Amino acid sequence: MAATGVRLDLDGRPIKPMTICMIGAGGFIGSHLCEKVLFETPHKILALDVYNDKIKHLLEPETQTWADRIQFHRINIKHDSRLEGLIKMADLTINLAAICTPADYNTRPLDTIYSNFIDALPVVKYCSENNKRLIHFSTCEVYGKTIGSFLPTDSPLRQDPSYYVLNENTSPCIFGSIEKQRWSYACAKQLIERLIYAEGAENGLEFTIVRPFNWIGPRMDFIPGIDGPSEGVPRVLACFSNNLLRRQPLKLVDGGQSQRTFVYIKDAIEAVLLMIENSARANGHIFNVGNPHNEVTVQQLAEMMTEVYSKVSGEPPLESPTIDVSSKEFYGEGYDDSDKRIPDMTIINRQLGWNPKTSLWDLLESTLTYQHRTYAEAVKQAISKPVAS
Ligand SMILES: NC(=O)c1ccc[n+]([C@@H]2O[C@H](COP(=O)([O-])OP(=O)(O)OC[C@H]3O[C@@H](n4cnc5c(N)ncnc54)[C@H](O)[C@@H]3O)[C@@H](O)[C@H]2O)c1
Ligand SMILES: O=c1ccn([C@@H]2O[C@H](COP(=O)(O)OP(=O)(O)O[C@H]3OC[C@](O)(CO)[C@H]3O)[C@@H](O)[C@H]2O)c(=O)[nH]1
């Protein structure tokens, strides 16, 4: 499965095999990136994470053809002296490690800020001091709210893309007040972006910053009570999958009127591989990675997921498939929301020629087929178990 023959970059130069130190390799994005690198390139991976359940299929059995190209290190980067050595052994470091579920931002703001800023500091420092290239995962949340959201609801300017399309070099970062602790994550991500940018400007760090716009697909987060805590609140794909699997109405926070653009994880991973293998085109840039054509309100997402799940599971949809819930009830005090997220694709198009391919319907069809195959039986068994009194 590994690539054979000479592979060329976008400028026709041979791509040299490299060693990648991937921090957070055991998560949703990390697991897909590990697959891509192992199946389609000759590169080696030093995979660092606290967990490895999502990459077990890549680590075992050790007879797999790629086995000598991935090494798992169970490391918590908060406190592990092996981190610098592993970064030194690699040509490139990719940092994916983070607390990145909105339910945590206002309920565990300290953990969120430490994870997204303080814990990322040594990674940046070791890369800079050892002249190692860094690809750092930030977020589309650094844009916060759109300028258009502050206009009167009937203002025609709300239809003008310059009031809502999010551009890496020109859009401002607009967060709510400090008591809206939702923004702890976005603010920590923004500060680490600024630090990386400054390391590039003052000390010559070779960096690329990725701003993912709602990447979704198989292995995202967990299903509460099955492979994660019963009371846990994952991101929207897993929340709605959980509701569909349990035949419960999908909960629309504050009416589900916020808008998102969703991109299929496999499309997005193509963009990351282009960044990995085209350093001259990617260094010094911040890239939006999303699919501007897949925009829906959360309510429309719920309706589409209900329809797709019915198709892939063969079960009829519920008579009342959704229910409204207040954000205070769902997430607690201090929650706030991004109103709309459409990525400007000019920079990634110009530098890497990347475009997403998969429609929202198609990506939901493959993802919900996976969810049904992976979880339906376990959920059925969990539901049928008598509850302890
Ligand atoms: N999925 C998206 O759409 C999306 C959107 C915006 C930003 N991002 C960013 O992309 C990155 C990866 O996101 P994901 O969706 O794969 O999340 P994820 O939670 O699935 O993956 C993060 C991984 O990092 C690991 N990790 C966290 N803290 C660690 C530590 N101290 N030491 C070692 N490992 C640690 C976790 O165990 C987990 O496996 C994050 O930085 C996130 O902020 C993702
Ligand atoms: O059951 C639910 C769960 C969520 N919502 C609403 O859906 C919107 C999207 O929620 P989610 O995908 O969980 O998170 P966000 O898009 O707000 O934030 C993420 O964006 C990128 C990232 O940085 C990492 O993935 C993260 O911060 C939202 O409006 C929820 O309120 C719902 O209605 N019902």
TrEMBL record:
GO terms for molecular function: identical protein binding; protein heterodimerization activity; UDP-D-apiose synthase activity; UDP-glucuronate decarboxylase activity. It is found in: Cytoplasm. It catalyses: UDP-alpha-D-glucuronate + H(+) = UDP-alpha-D-xylose + CO2; UDP-alpha-D-glucuronate + H(+) = UDP-alpha-D-apiose + CO2. Gene3D superfamilies: NAD(P)-binding Rossmann-like Domain (3.40.50.720). One of its GO terms (biological process) is cell wall organization. It comes from the Eukaryota. InterPro entries: Arna-like_SDR_e, Epimerase_deHydtase, Lipid_A_modif_metabolic_enz, NAD(P)-bd_dom_sf. Keywords: Cell wall biogenesis/degradation, Cytoplasm, Lyase, NAD. Residues 20-290 form the NAD-dependent epimerase/dehydratase domain. Belongs to the NAD(P)-dependent epimerase/dehydratase family. This is UDP-glucuronate decarboxylase. It comes from Acer yangbiense.
